[in-house]
DNA sequence: TCTTGGGTGTTACTTGCGGTAACCGAAGTG
DNA sequence: CACTTCGGTTACCGCAAGTAACACCCAAGA
């Protein structure tokens, strides 16, 4: 370790440091996926574990900080797509495509965001049923719900309907995207079309198969 | 290899033993959720770790065996719902409700199935991008795809469409269910109705909100 | 009979990771 | 100069996965 010969006392404001550490963590996650170890991250940052803990408390803290960056970025992109000046169908397709493009571009980051490597918290009483997987999905769902509520006229009970739909659609995107990413059964554009068709009620509109089942 | 049943010796055929171990593991998972430790499971079964490893190879093996049981059970219930003699809308609602009832009844098991506690496998080369979360969701998606393909007339390209829809709908169910389970914003029946409405194209049918979108 | 051998099970270990305590050394300031 | 105060380190704890090596029991086989 060379003694950092800083010219004058350029005391990096610790926020800067934090950002550097996050960059390093990012690189490691990009390489190792969600099971990146604290040791590995520290090494990548050129330092040792305790510093990470000083900055982020625990692994969960670091992961949360890291996830927030990516989530914010993704959300910005999605908002741009969903708020574009176009017909609803087009906006929906653009949003789906934006999401899929993102997870396609950096699958490791995506995996990290979706499965934040179970915290292992002692959980005290034990009935912590509520705290599930990805905060990312929750945020996406809520945001989408807001958009739906604001822009679509759904009549009475619209708030609840919008929230259910927000989370449902996000879940659909996630589930289909996860499957598509691992099997690549078709192009992104095709996937987008199929999903949009689903949302457009083609399932309800289709008739039963010929030679219909007695039951 | 003698197929002789040794009557006298109550030598449990090791399949029996395996089943007992799985029962014990089940109890522990039901209590501790997905982060149940091998030690805990062994203790619950009244034995020690190495025996578990003899029977299941590694933790992943045990988890896979355990997951298969629950997955099979859930799939049976879902198949019954989806194959009921009723209109499509009714069948869809029944299927959604069956799934939600299952995750509502045993959330810990559900969490376990969805997040099988990341295997931590070294993964050799490192680019194992494909292997994501829950095999349960994959199986559900494929099964649903089959049902859709068999029973709904979708015209050309129907196979791919059915597969996308299968995984998409399962994702929707999962996402909405996960959120609903943790926030309980409404009754199960309401949730089912909302989701079915979504699948029935109400999003496409609804008009833009009054005071239209300037942007 | 003794011995062999495949089941059952055990204790005791290694490895690796999250997390922490305690110490180090180079500023900056009276 | 002493004295704090950072940015940093080494060395450790606890715990969980996984393994090695040993111990017991009971059915044969010569």
UniProtKB/TrEMBL annotation, chains A, B:
Domain HTH tetR-type: 15-74
DNA-binding region (UniProt annotation): 37-56
Pfam families: TetR_C_32, TetR_N
Classification via Gene3D superfamilies: Tetracycline Repressor, domain 2
Keywords: DNA-binding
PANTHER family: HTH-TYPE TRANSCRIPTIONAL REGULATOR RUTR, TRANSCRIPTIONAL REGULATORY PROTEIN (PROBABLY TETR-FAMILY)-RELATED
Protein name per Swiss-Prot or TrEMBL: TetR family transcriptional regulator
Organism annotation: Streptomyces maoxianensis
